[in-house]
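Moderator note: this is an archived Q&A kept for reference. The question asked for a predicted structure of one protein chain; the sequence and the answer are reproduced below.
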Amino acid sequence: MRRSSFVGLLSVALVAALPLGCADDGPAALDETTEGPTSPQGPQATPPNVAPTAVAGPDQAAECASHAGSSVTLTSVGSGDSDGQITLYEWFENGTRIATGPTPTVTLAYGAHTILLRTTDDDGGTNDDVVMVTIRDTRAPTVAMVVSPTSLWPPNHTMHVVARGASASDVCDPAPALHFAITSDEPENGLGDGDTAPDWAVQAAGASVADVLVRAERSGLGDGRVYTISATATDRAGNGSSAATGTVTVPHNQ
């Protein structure tokens, strides 16, 4: 018997990047409106003062731990001032100060971050250095789907919800894309089933949540209809889930 197939795709738009959070290891509170350098300016000092050195530490990578990203500790080990002392350590991203202090811990969202360290000495001299921090996502999302009921009767051509609240979730991505593939072992039309189409539908029920409906219909010339439903998910990093599957039958007779 000819097999018909349909792929239903529900793709939920990603939320905007979450704002950076930070925890300062010094007593000063951060002013989120403080603007600063977007690129290293090099040593700046008025003689006889000698500019301090700035060392922002080695590049880092961390696994995304939540929808907010991951916590990373920055380090300025190696920074110093040859003719005085460093009185201020400031950390900037895209010109916005995100932390102060020599070893602050910051929460960074998923993705690549260019963090600039500016050191200031006791005579007002400054110097800058840059560190790259990557928050990566290597874990696949998961899909939850329960197919119920698994048998429809009578075959009266009505649509029924057979998977309510099928959903995708991910440690890092707050809105992974949810995909459905729905197939039937009978063509939609032409075999004495009433020729009502379409025989399945996917309805969004929220972010990464959907309901699946199929029609109580089968060919009068066959031995009953079997729908096969498969759900998968993909997160913004491209990680794909394993499939959740289920079947629904419309018997020829009771």
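Archived answer notes: Residues 1-29 have pLDDT under 50 and may be disordered.
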